[in-house]
Design a protein that fits this description.
By secondary structure, the protein is α+β, with helices and mostly antiparallel strands. 46% of the residues lie in helices and 18% in strands. Helix 1 runs parallel beside helix 3, helix 2 runs antiparallel to helix 3 and helix 5 runs parallel beside helix 7.
Length: 194
């Protein structure tokens, strides 16, 4: 898919979103849970379908939407931006940030005495790099490209990954990236500390 074709599609999506926002002020907001648009956005990000995600955003999905699952002994909150970062989906990350997603969003899981908090910037480092076939027309971006985009949009370069199972652990971004000199240089440029 050519960049010009993608740009035209996104431009049309932005225009449609502006029209939707004008009409949305009269729509009631419910506290019944996520909207259908939010659910469609979550599913589109899960499938890595940028076109469907853009459509869901145009129809009112929140780019900062986080799916929350609750059970008797805990809960799990997974923001769509975190999922896109973990999948190393640069196009999706660009789309969500363009629609106002919080670059400091974090995955949260709490169950009994166990907890885990993973900011998006850490998801870029620990996420499995997906295998895309050439037929899909996608090239797997390097973590530096996604990290740079997040930092440009205001992500905290000193965000820490924290968890506790048998013991409490905390990891800085700079410490987690020390095996990648290019990433370390980028983080230090944005003021990251060990």
């Amino acid at each position: 898919m050519s960049p010009l074709y993608l740009a035209a599609g996104f431009l049309a999506a932005f225009a449609a979103r502006a029209l939707w926002r004008a009409a949305a002020s009269s729509r009631p907001v419910t506290a019944d849970g996520p909207s259908r648009a939010d659910q469609r956005l979550y599913e589109a990000v899960q499938r890595r379908d940028v076109t469907a995600a853009a459509e869901a955003l145009v129809y009112g999905a929140s780019a900062s939407y986080a799916r929350v699952d609750r059970w008797d002994y805990g809960r799990c909150s997974e923001p769509v931006l975190h999922m896109a970062c973990k999948q190393h989906d640069l196009e999706m990350v660009e789309l969500l940030l363009g629609y106002g997603a919080n670059p400091d969003a974090q995955y949260e899981k709490e169950a009994g005495s166990y907890f885990e908090y993973e900011p998006c910037v850490h998801a870029v480092l620990v996420g499995p790099i997906p295998d895309y076939t050439p037929e899909q027309g996608r090239v797997t971006p390097r973590p530096v490209e996604i990290m740079s985009l997040l930092l440009e949009r205001g992500a905290n370069p000193n965000a820490t990954y924290r968890d506790r199972d048998d013991c409490y652990r905390e990891f800085t971004l700079l410490g987690s990236a020390r095996n990648n000199p290019e990433l370390v240089a980028l983080l230090e440029r944005y003021g990251a500390r060990e």
